[in-house]
Each structure stands twice: as C-alpha cells, then as structure tokens.
Write a structure and sequence with these properties.
The protein is α+β, with helices and mostly antiparallel strands and about 170 residues long. It has one domain: Alpha-Beta Plaits. Helices cover about 30% and strands about 40% of the residues. It contains four helices and eight strands, in the order αβαββαββββαβ. An eight-stranded mixed β-sheet has the order 2-3-1-4-7-8-6-5. The longest helix is centred in the N-terminal third of the chain and has 17 residues. It starts with a helix and ends with a strand.
C-alpha cells in the first residue's frame, strides 16, 4: 500500500512539473490612445517572467509570451495593467497540460497557484490548452456579477484567496 501511494504521489508531481503557462492574451479596458497602449506595454514588459509582449491596438489586446520554465504569477499581469491606469477586461492563458482532468469544481496547482474549473465540460486536457480566468478583476464587471450569482454551483467563486483562480476551458 505504501509503495502504491508513493507511485501515485510521484505521478502527480510529474504532471505538475510538466505543466506550465506559455502565453497569455490580455484585453485591457479603458485604453483610448496609443500612449495608453504604450504605458500598458511598458508595465507588462517589466515583469521578470515575461519574454516579450505583442500589441493588438485594434482589440486593445496584448499577447504576453513567458520565459520557458519560469514560474508565472497571474496577479502580476493585473497589477501592472492597473498600475498603468487601466483594467483587465479578459485574460486567456495558454497552459501546457499533461493529462489534466477538467471537471467543474476540480483544481490543479501550477507555480503555487490553484486553478479551479467552472462552466467546463468534463474532459482530459493534453498539450496546449486555452483557459479563461473568470475571477473579479480578470473579467468585465457584468460577467463577474452574472457568475457571482452561481455560488451554489461554484461555492469557492466569491472567496478571495490570493493564489486561487477560477478557469473555464475555451
């Protein structure tokens, strides 16, 4: 029994170690000119785990590429956009996953952050997978209000845990 438990634990650690965040697509709200975009760009590129940032001025979006095998702190993205004077309207993160079970209210951990699935069809995720961050400050207020009415279905959603994020498969 002890041997079986050790093997199971090693498999979980291997899954977590092989998982990582590759890229993020962030849409900022409140940008009105190229100077606004430049200020946001400068804030995002200053994050140590960011390799490069591409801007899409037509959609007020930023494609953020992360350095390989570097822990990513999602909250840094939000903080930097807010430091530039704007807000995050949407954040889609590209994860590299290995046999990750996706079911509502199940979680996984990467880089000391817990990601909990909501509004997700049951499946097993492999390879590069886009997941949308659904928490307050990462979606527009209208969407957050709608989701916060679903606390019976997702009891952890309205809680405020610094390193916990709610995600949806796309």
């Amino acid at each position: 029994m002890k041997k079986l438990l050790t093997i199971a634990l090693l498999l979980c650690v291997t899954t977590i170690a092989n998982s990582q965040i590759i890229r993020a697509e962030l849409t900022a709200t409140g940008l009105t000119c190229s100077m606004c975009s430049k200020a946001t760009y400068n804030q995002l590129i200053s994050i140590s785990e960011v390799e490069k940032v591409e801007t899409d001025l037509n959609n007020t979006a930023f494609i953020i590429h992360f350095k390989s095998n570097t822990p990513v702190t999602i909250s840094n993205l939000k903080k930097k956009v807010e430091d530039a004077g704007f807000a995050v309207g949407e954040l889609i993160v590209l994860f590299k996953l290995n046999n990750q079970v996706a079911e509502n209210n199940t979680s996984f951990v990467i880089d000391n952050n817990t990601y909990t699935f909501m509004e997700t069809k049951s499946s097993t995720l492999n390879g590069e997978v886009k997941l949308k961050i659904m928490d307050k400050g990462y979606v527009v207020d209208k969407e957050f209000k709608k989701l916060s009415n679903m606390t019976k279905q997702y009891p952890s959603y309205v809680g405020t845990n610094k390193n916990t994020y709610h995600i949806k498969t796309l």
